[in-house]
Amino acid sequence: MNPHVSHHLLLCANSKKSLCCDTEEGNRTWEKLKNVLKNNNLEDPTRSQGIVLRSKVDCLRICHSGPILLIWPDGIWYKDVYANRIERIIESHIIQGNPIKEWVLKETPLKNMASSF
Ligand code: FES
Fold first, then answer.
1. C-alpha dihedral over 50, 111, 66, 58, to 10 degrees?
2. pTM to 2 decimal places
3. Is the shortest distance between the CB of 89 and ligand 1 below 6 Å?
4. Which whole-number Å values give the CA distances from 105 to 15, 20, 90, in the listed order?
5. Residue 91 has what DSSP assignment?
6. How many domains does the chain divide into?
7. How many CA atoms lie within 13 A of 116 on its CB side?
């Protein structure tokens, strides 16, 4: 049986050359993200609220104010996601369901996606 997915997190952290942030900064954020998800058992396929997926991507077509973190299905785009912001984003947004408005760059909920681009 495939596990239910609660969220998919896409982090722009190009391992070669990132335009939106310092490449090493992006990689630090990626490593922190992996650790925080693991330490909170959010990648456990038996988690009742659903598994949290993560993907490291080369570009999310923002290309400034990075590292950029996009969270589906909410369509929340976080800016300036340095490693020291990851714990609060995971705790507040993913676990408690409260996005951190002051760090949001834009919102593109799936139902509005076609008109947002
Ligand atoms: S390089 Fe990060 S959004 Fe384009």
1. 80
2. 0.91
3. no
4. 23, 13, 17
5. I
6. 1
7. 11
Query: What is the Å distance from ligand 1's center to 64 Cα?
Result: 7
Instruction: Determine the Cα–Cα distance for residues 46 and 23; give it in Å rounded to an integer.
Output: 34
- Looking at residue 114, its pLDDT comes to 53
User: Residue 72's Cα: distance from chain center in Å?
Assistant: 8
Amino acid at 38: K
Buried b (16+ CB within 10 A) or exposed e, 105-115: beebeeeeeee
Q: Which domain holds residue 35?
A: 5-116
State in Å: Cα 9 to ligand 1 middle: 15
- The CATH number covering residue 100 comes to 3.40.30.10
CA–centroid distance, 95 to ligand 1, in Å, is 26
Distance CA 33, CA 45 (A): 18
Residuewise pLDDT in 10s, the chain (117 residues): 677 999 999 999 876 777 899 999 999 999 999 999 999 999 999 999 999 999 999 999 999 999 999 999 999 999 999 999 999 999 999 999 999 999 999 999 877 555 544
